[in-house]
């Protein structure tokens, strides 16, 4: 069974405490539950009344914590509502690190994304109820869009470091890691945008994993065509 709450925006991944759990383990779980409650409250409020009408105080009250507790976890309401994006970016990077060393960087990134999208035990946040609405809202809410971009860039910077390590190069000096990650992550963002905007009307966009695969196929086929075309130029 999936670990996320099918009625809300957030996850419920906290396992019951074990007799051998240390106080630090219990503190981490409590902090995670608080963070999830805040993220869930931010998501619910922003979807129901918009970003401008949602206050940090209202989010904290809905999560039954203080304003000060909110500030310990998030810089702002947009970051709270999009905490799922950050967590899934971390998951993609963890899967990328685990890919076999012999895989080309673009292939490794694509397969990491595929594993993330098709994990039956830990589905990506986009597949949770109402997340399509939140993803579509990002394009029309400047504050949400800005937060989304910051979170996405942070994840991509880590991806660049991972790819640079795979290539045995310096990502600050070698353009290849950034080129691969920007292209691969851009394909994912493009597919997510189509899925959010057209999913209810376009049957071909209903299956997010299949849509992402088609988007990566489009990238590789266009790249191959561009290479073939360049070799015929005089």
Automatic annotation (TrEMBL):
Coiled-coil segments: none
Region spans: Disordered: 1-33
Signal sequence, renumbered to the chain: none
Segments forming domain HTH tetR-type: 32-92
InterPro entries documented for this protein: Homeodomain-like_sf (IPR009057), HTH-type_TetR-like_transc_reg (IPR050109), HTH_TetR (IPR001647), MftR_C (IPR041347)
Transmembrane region(s): none
Keyword Hydrolase on entry: no
Pfam families per the UniProt record, alphabetical: TetR_C_14, TetR_N
Keywords (A to Z) from UniProt: DNA-binding, Transcription, Transcription regulation
Molecular function terms from GO: DNA-binding transcription factor activity; transcription cis-regulatory region binding
Protein's UniProt keywords contain Transcription: yes
Residue range(s) of DNA binding per entry: 55-74
Name the record gives this protein: TetR family transcriptional regulator
């Amino acid at each position: 069974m999936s670990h996320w709450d099918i009625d809300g925006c957030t996850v419920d991944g906290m396992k019951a405490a074990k007799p051998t759990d240390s106080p630090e383990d219990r503190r981490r779980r409590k902090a995670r539950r608080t963070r999830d409650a805040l993220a869930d409250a931010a998501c619910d409020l922003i979807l129901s009344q918009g970003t401008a009408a949602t206050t940090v105080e209202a989010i904290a009250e809905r999560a039954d914590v203080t304003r000060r507790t909110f500030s310990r976890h998030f810089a702002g309401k947009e970051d709270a509502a999009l905490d799922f994006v950050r967590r899934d970016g971390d998951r993609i990077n963890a899967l990328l690190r685990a890919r076999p060393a012999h895989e080309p960087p673009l292939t490794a990134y694509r397969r990491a994304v595929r594993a993330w999208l098709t994990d039956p035990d830990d589905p990506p946040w986009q597949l949770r109820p109402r997340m399509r609405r939140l993803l579509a809202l990002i394009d029309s809410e400047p504050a949400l869009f800005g937060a989304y971009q910051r979170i996405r860039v942070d994840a991509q910077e880590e991806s660049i470091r991972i790819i640079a390590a795979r290539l045995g190069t310096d990502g600050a000096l070698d353009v290849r890691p950034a080129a691969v990650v920007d292209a691969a992550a851009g394909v994912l963002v493009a597919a997510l945008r189509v899925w959010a905007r057209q999913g209810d009307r376009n049957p071909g966009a209903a299956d997010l994993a299949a849509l992402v695969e088609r988007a990566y196929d489009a990238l590789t086929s266009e790249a191959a065509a561009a290479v073939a075309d360049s070799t015929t130029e005089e």
